Protein backbone atom coordinates (compact mmCIF):
# COMPACT_ATOMS: atom_id res chain seq x y z
CA UNK A 1 0.00 0.00 0.00
CA UNK A 2 1.28 3.43 -0.95
CA UNK A 3 -0.06 6.72 0.41
CA UNK A 4 1.14 10.19 -0.55
CA UNK A 5 0.56 13.32 -2.58
CA UNK A 6 0.19 13.77 -6.32
CA UNK A 7 3.94 14.08 -6.93
CA UNK A 8 4.58 10.86 -5.03
CA UNK A 9 2.17 8.87 -7.22
CA UNK A 10 3.71 10.31 -10.38
CA UNK A 11 7.14 9.34 -9.08
CA UNK A 12 5.90 5.78 -8.52
CA UNK A 13 4.33 5.74 -12.03
CA UNK A 14 0.85 5.04 -10.69
CA UNK A 15 -1.98 6.26 -12.91
CA UNK A 16 -4.61 8.22 -11.01
CA UNK A 17 -7.51 10.21 -12.43
CA UNK A 18 -7.70 12.79 -9.64
CA UNK A 19 -5.10 15.57 -9.47
CA UNK A 20 -6.81 18.92 -9.07
CA UNK A 21 -8.36 18.88 -5.61
CA UNK A 22 -8.88 21.88 -3.29
CA UNK A 23 -7.33 20.58 -0.11
CA UNK A 24 -4.46 18.55 1.23
CA UNK A 25 -4.86 15.20 -0.55
CA UNK A 26 -3.54 11.80 0.46
CA UNK A 27 -3.73 9.45 -2.53
CA UNK A 28 -3.85 5.73 -1.83
CA UNK A 29 -2.69 2.90 -4.10
CA UNK A 30 -2.79 -0.84 -3.42
CA UNK A 31 -0.51 -3.14 -5.38
CA UNK A 32 0.29 -0.20 -7.72
CA UNK A 33 -3.41 0.24 -8.51
CA UNK A 34 -5.08 3.53 -7.59
CA UNK A 35 -7.67 3.00 -4.86
CA UNK A 36 -8.80 6.55 -4.02
CA UNK A 37 -7.91 9.56 -1.95
CA UNK A 38 -8.55 11.28 1.35
CA UNK A 39 -8.99 15.06 1.57
CA UNK A 40 -7.72 16.93 4.61
CA UNK A 41 -9.07 20.44 4.13
CA UNK A 42 -8.67 23.54 6.27
CA UNK A 43 -11.50 25.96 6.96
CA UNK A 44 -11.24 29.73 7.14
CA UNK A 45 -11.44 31.34 10.56
CA UNK A 46 -14.52 33.50 11.08
CA UNK A 47 -12.62 36.77 10.90
CA UNK A 48 -10.00 35.76 8.32
CA UNK A 49 -11.46 37.87 5.51
CA UNK A 50 -11.85 40.82 7.87
CA UNK A 51 -8.22 40.42 8.95
CA UNK A 52 -6.91 40.68 5.38
CA UNK A 53 -9.18 43.66 4.66
CA UNK A 54 -7.85 45.44 7.76
CA UNK A 55 -4.25 44.85 6.69
CA UNK A 56 -4.91 46.11 3.16
CA UNK A 57 -6.59 49.21 4.61
CA UNK A 58 -3.25 49.93 6.31
CA UNK A 59 -1.36 49.53 2.99
CA UNK A 60 0.16 46.23 4.11
CA UNK A 61 0.88 43.66 1.39
CA UNK A 62 -0.25 40.11 2.13
CA UNK A 63 1.53 36.95 1.01
CA UNK A 64 0.47 33.39 1.86
CA UNK A 65 3.08 30.67 2.37
CA UNK A 66 1.51 27.23 2.67
CA UNK A 67 2.35 23.57 2.47
CA UNK A 68 -1.01 22.84 0.82
CA UNK A 69 -1.18 22.01 -2.87
CA UNK A 70 -1.56 24.78 -5.45
CA UNK A 71 -5.26 24.15 -5.99
CA UNK A 72 -6.12 24.55 -2.31
CA UNK A 73 -3.80 27.56 -2.03
CA UNK A 74 -5.41 29.22 -5.05
CA UNK A 75 -8.91 28.66 -3.65
CA UNK A 76 -8.08 30.21 -0.27
CA UNK A 77 -6.08 33.04 -1.86
CA UNK A 78 -9.11 34.02 -3.93
CA UNK A 79 -11.47 33.87 -0.95
CA UNK A 80 -9.15 36.02 1.15
CA UNK A 81 -8.04 38.34 -1.68
CA UNK A 82 -4.38 37.59 -0.95
CA UNK A 83 -1.89 39.60 -3.05
CA UNK A 84 0.42 36.63 -3.70
CA UNK A 85 0.69 33.01 -2.61
CA UNK A 86 3.23 30.18 -2.69
CA UNK A 87 2.13 26.58 -2.28
CA UNK A 88 3.54 23.10 -1.58
CA UNK A 89 6.27 24.54 0.65
CA UNK A 90 8.40 22.71 3.17
CA UNK A 91 9.56 24.63 6.28
CA UNK A 92 12.90 25.43 4.64
CA UNK A 93 11.07 26.68 1.52
CA UNK A 94 9.09 29.13 3.66
CA UNK A 95 12.33 30.46 5.12
CA UNK A 96 13.74 31.04 1.62
CA UNK A 97 10.62 32.94 0.56
CA UNK A 98 10.72 35.08 3.71
CA UNK A 99 14.36 35.89 3.04
CA UNK A 100 13.45 36.92 -0.51
CA UNK A 101 10.64 39.15 0.78
CA UNK A 102 12.99 40.76 3.30
CA UNK A 103 15.52 41.44 0.52
CA UNK A 104 12.81 42.96 -1.69
CA UNK A 105 11.44 45.18 1.11
CA UNK A 106 14.59 46.74 2.53
CA UNK A 107 12.69 49.89 3.51
CA UNK A 108 10.07 48.03 5.52
CA UNK A 109 9.55 45.10 7.84
CA UNK A 110 8.30 41.61 7.01
CA UNK A 111 6.05 39.90 9.57
CA UNK A 112 4.97 36.26 9.51
CA UNK A 113 1.90 34.87 11.24
CA UNK A 114 1.77 31.13 11.99
CA UNK A 115 0.81 28.55 14.57
CA UNK A 116 2.28 25.19 13.50
CA UNK A 117 5.48 23.51 14.62
CA UNK A 118 6.74 23.74 11.02
CA UNK A 119 6.30 27.53 11.20
CA UNK A 120 8.95 27.94 13.92
CA UNK A 121 11.93 28.41 11.53
CA UNK A 122 10.20 31.09 9.46
CA UNK A 123 8.85 32.82 12.59
CA UNK A 124 12.44 33.12 13.78
CA UNK A 125 13.69 34.40 10.42
CA UNK A 126 11.02 37.05 9.83
CA UNK A 127 11.57 40.60 11.07
CA UNK A 128 8.54 40.09 13.30
CA UNK A 129 7.19 36.62 14.15
CA UNK A 130 3.56 36.47 15.29
CA UNK A 131 2.15 33.24 16.75
CA UNK A 132 -1.48 32.34 17.43
CA UNK A 133 -1.36 31.50 21.12
CA UNK A 134 -4.60 29.64 21.84
CA UNK A 135 -4.07 26.65 19.54
CA UNK A 136 -0.51 27.31 18.39
CA UNK A 137 2.27 24.80 18.93
CA UNK A 138 4.76 25.32 21.77
CA UNK A 139 7.59 25.68 19.26
CA UNK A 140 5.80 28.49 17.41
CA UNK A 141 4.88 30.31 20.63
CA UNK A 142 8.41 30.12 22.04
CA UNK A 143 9.98 31.31 18.78
CA UNK A 144 7.62 34.20 18.00
CA UNK A 145 8.23 37.83 18.94
CA UNK A 146 4.51 38.44 19.49
CA UNK A 147 1.92 35.94 20.73
CA UNK A 148 -1.79 36.61 20.18
CA UNK A 149 -3.67 35.07 23.10
CA UNK A 150 -6.66 34.25 20.90
CA UNK A 151 -6.69 32.56 17.51
CA UNK A 152 -8.18 35.64 15.87
CA UNK A 153 -6.31 36.86 12.76
CA UNK A 154 -8.07 40.24 13.05
CA UNK A 155 -5.98 40.92 16.17
CA UNK A 156 -2.89 41.26 13.95
CA UNK A 157 -4.08 44.65 12.68
CA UNK A 158 -4.87 45.70 16.26
CA UNK A 159 -1.36 44.70 17.35
CA UNK A 160 0.10 46.80 14.52
CA UNK A 161 -1.97 49.82 15.59
CA UNK A 162 -0.87 49.44 19.22
CA UNK A 163 2.78 49.17 18.16
CA UNK A 164 2.54 52.28 16.00
CA UNK A 165 0.87 54.32 18.77
CA UNK A 166 3.49 53.14 21.26
CA UNK A 167 6.32 54.14 18.91
CA UNK A 168 4.79 57.59 18.39
CA UNK A 169 4.46 58.12 22.15
CA UNK A 170 8.07 57.08 22.71
CA UNK A 171 9.33 59.55 20.08
CA UNK A 172 7.12 62.31 21.50
CA UNK A 173 8.60 61.72 24.95
CA UNK A 174 12.14 61.77 23.58
CA UNK A 175 11.62 65.03 21.65
CA UNK A 176 9.86 66.64 24.62
CA UNK A 177 12.65 65.67 27.03
CA UNK A 178 15.39 66.86 24.68
CA UNK A 179 13.51 70.09 24.03
CA UNK A 180 13.23 70.86 27.75
CA UNK A 181 16.92 70.12 28.26
CA UNK A 182 17.90 72.36 25.34
CA UNK A 183 15.68 75.13 26.70
CA UNK A 184 17.40 75.08 30.10
CA UNK A 185 20.83 74.88 28.47
CA UNK A 186 20.07 78.08 26.59
CA UNK A 187 18.77 79.74 29.79
CA UNK A 188 21.91 78.60 31.59
CA UNK A 189 24.16 80.06 28.90
CA UNK A 190 22.28 83.38 29.17
CA UNK A 191 22.64 83.30 32.95
CA UNK A 192 18.87 83.13 33.52
CA UNK A 193 18.54 79.52 34.72
CA UNK A 194 20.08 78.68 38.07
CA UNK A 195 21.32 75.37 39.40
CA UNK A 196 18.12 74.56 41.31
CA UNK A 197 15.98 74.99 38.15
CA UNK A 198 18.24 72.59 36.27
CA UNK A 199 18.01 70.11 39.15
CA UNK A 200 14.21 70.35 39.19
CA UNK A 201 14.11 69.89 35.40
CA UNK A 202 16.24 66.76 35.56
CA UNK A 203 14.27 65.39 38.53
CA UNK A 204 10.97 65.93 36.68
CA UNK A 205 12.17 63.91 33.67
CA UNK A 206 13.34 60.92 35.70
Task: Put the structure in a nutshell.
With 206 residues, the chain is α/β, with parallel strands linked by helices. It is 48% helix and 17% strand.
Describe the structure in your own words.
The protein has 206 residues and is of the alpha/beta class. It folds into 3 domains: 2-40, no CATH class; 48-159, Rossmann fold, CATH 3.40.50.1000; 166-205. It is 48% helix and 17% strand. It is built from 8 helices and 8 strands. It has helices spanning 6-11, 48-57, 70-80, 91-104, 120-125, 138-143, 155-189, 195-205; strands at residues 2-4, 24-30, 33-40, 63-65, 84-86, 111-114, 128-132, 146-148. A 3-stranded antiparallel sheet has the order 1-2-3. Strand 4, helix 3 and strand 5 form a beta-alpha-beta unit. The longest helix has 35 residues, at 155-189. The protein starts with a strand and ends with a helix. The mean pLDDT is 84.
For the structure shown, list the relevant keywords.
Rossmann fold, 206 residues, alpha/beta, single chain, elongated, 3 domains
Characterize the overall form: elongated
State the distance separating the first and last CA atoms.
72 Å
Shape-level CATH architecture of the largest domain = 3-Layer(aba) Sandwich
Helix % is 40-55%
Biggest beta sheet attributes: 3 strands, antiparallel
* N-to-C order of helices and strands: EHEEHEHEHEHEHEHH
Number of helices: 8
